[in-house]
Structures are given as structure tokens and as C-alpha cells.
Specification:
The complex is a heterodimer of chains A (117) and B (112).
Chain A: E1 3-5, E2 10-14, E3 19-21, E4 24-26, E5 32-39, E6 46-52, E7 60-61, E8 64-69, E9 74-79, E10 88-96, E11 105-107, E12 111-116
Chain B: E1 5-7, E2 10-13, E3 19-24, E4 31-37, E5 44-50, E6 53-57, E7 64-68, E8 74-78, E9 87-94, E10 102-103, E11 107-111
Parallel strand pairs in B: 2-11
Antiparallel strand pairs in B: 1-3, 3-8, 4-5, 4-9, 5-6, 7-8, 9-10, 9-11
Classes of the chains: A mainly beta (117), B mainly beta (112).
Chain lengths: 117, 112
């Protein structure tokens, strides 16, 4: 079974600075997707960025980028120029592309990010 | 905001009762997944419905059941509620099983 581990329960960053959130996962599959979701106090999960396992190039979305290390099964999120609105819970998630597991997300326990003005 | 809406937003039930949670999927989406998020935890997959059929289930007992309707909206039913069922229940819709999922704002269920 696949697992996702986020080893940082809480992180803090100064406004305008850069922060990196860590995520590791375990799988025997070769084809999958990885995601970072943001969950603000409003509770709605918002997709931040996604990475397809077969793509070697790291995904980037504006101030958000990932460092995807497939062999090490590591998937970290870097937030540049942090803003107050970035404060939220961040979840790393895995999605299989095989069989009956296709489509369901496996989440880590989350990292609570605080942004200091 | 996504086009996924859930109702109600909050609910309090007594142990042993039954509850029904509702999810209206985003326009054009035919797949709905349900997740349970306990306090301080990441969401856990309950089950998924694709074109009105259950299509994958997580490690949840049979008292968790669901439906998907012809308009692709969905219900989550939980029978014989237990205190541990207290959680945020999230619904996510997508077009097809392996495409991007859009989440609703969740239903906060408290069992007393």
C-alpha cells in the first residue's frame, strides 16, 4: 500500500521569505501523480501544484515550485516570496494511475504553515 | 471557489443515529469521491462513485454507504453513528477517475 509522510507538523516563515515543505512517499508503482493541496481555515482543499511521475521536469506555478526526486521518493514544495494569504495547512497527496485505486488520493498528515508579517 | 457544494455545513448527531450528507458536483463532472478528515489528520478516502456505480472503497465499514444520482450529485450515508465518526467530510468531483479533483467546503459532523 502507498503511504505519504509529512515530517513537519508546523513551519513558520517571514513574509517575503522562502520556505520549503517536505514530503516523502512510498510506492512500488512507476506511474502516479503527486499533489500539494492547501487547506485554509475555510476548509476547502485547493490544488496548489501537481507533478506527473513520468515527467522529470519539476512543476512550477508562479511562486510555488516542487523538487521531485523520484528515486528518493521525495516531493518537496517551495514557496517563494511568502504572503500572508499563504498561511494554511498544506497536504501532500499521492494518486495511483492503476486499477481500482485510480482516482483516489492518499494524503499525508499535513504541515501547518504560519506567515509572520 | 469550485463548483462543488456540500450540505449541510455543520451537523450535530447523537450516537446511534443515522446521517445523510449531500454533495453537488461541478458541472460536467461524472465522478464523486468522499473523504473523512479527522481533527489534525489528512483526509482518508471513503469511496468513489463513477457514473452512478461505486468504484473503489477505502478501509471503512459497511455502515458507510453512498449513492450517486443521474445528475451525478451524491450522498454519503452513515448508520449507527459512533463518537469516532466526528470529522470533516469532504466531497470531491472530477471528470473521470484519473483527472483533477475539485473539493467542496466540507460538512463538519459532530457525534455526541
Amino acid at each position: 500500500a502507498q503511504t505519504v509522510t509529512q515530517s513537519q507538523p508546523e513551519m513558520s516563515v517571514q513574509e517575503a521569505e522562502t520556505v520549503t515543505l517536505s514530503c516523502t512517499y512510498d510506492t512500488s508503482e512507476s506511474d502516479y501523480y503527486l499533489f500539494w493541496y492547501k487547506q485554509p481555515p475555510s476548509r476547502q482543499m485547493i490544488l496548489v501544484i501537481r507533478q506527473e511521475a513520468y515527467k522529470q521536469q519539476n512543476a512550477t506555478e508562479n511562486r510555488f515550485s516542487v523538487n521531485f526526486q523520484k528515486a528518493a521518493k521525495s516531493f518537496s514544495l517551495k514557496i517563494s516570496d511568502s504572503q500572508l494569504g499563504d498561511a494554511a495547512m498544506y497536504f501532500c497527496a499521492y494518486r495511483s494511475e492503476y486499477g481500482g485505486s485510480q482516482g483516489n488520493l492518499i494524503f499525508g498528515k499535513g504541515t501547518k504553515l504560519s506567515v509572520k508579517p | 471557489e469550485t463548483g462543488v457544494t456540500q450540505s449541510p455545513t455543520h451537523l450535530i448527531k447523537t450516537r446511534g443515529q443515522q446521517v445523510t450528507l449531500r454533495c453537488s458536483s461541478q458541472s460536467g463532472h461524472n465522478t464523486v469521491s468522499w473523504y473523512q478528515q479527522a481533527l489534525g489528520q489528512g483526509p482518508q478516502f471513503i469511496f468513489q462513485y463513477y457514473r452512478e456505480e461505486e468504484n473503489g472503497r477505502g478501509n471503512f465499514p459497511p455502515r458507510f454507504s453512498g449513492l450517486q444520482f443521474p445528475n451525478y450529485s451524491s450522498e454519503l450515508n452513515v448508520n449507527a453513528l459512533e463518537l469516532d465518526d466526528s470529522a470533516l467530510y469532504l466531497c470531491a468531483s472530477s471528470f473521470g477517475r484519473g483527472t483533477e479533483a475539485f473539493f467542496g467546503q466540507g460538512t463538519r459532523l459532530t457525534v455526541v
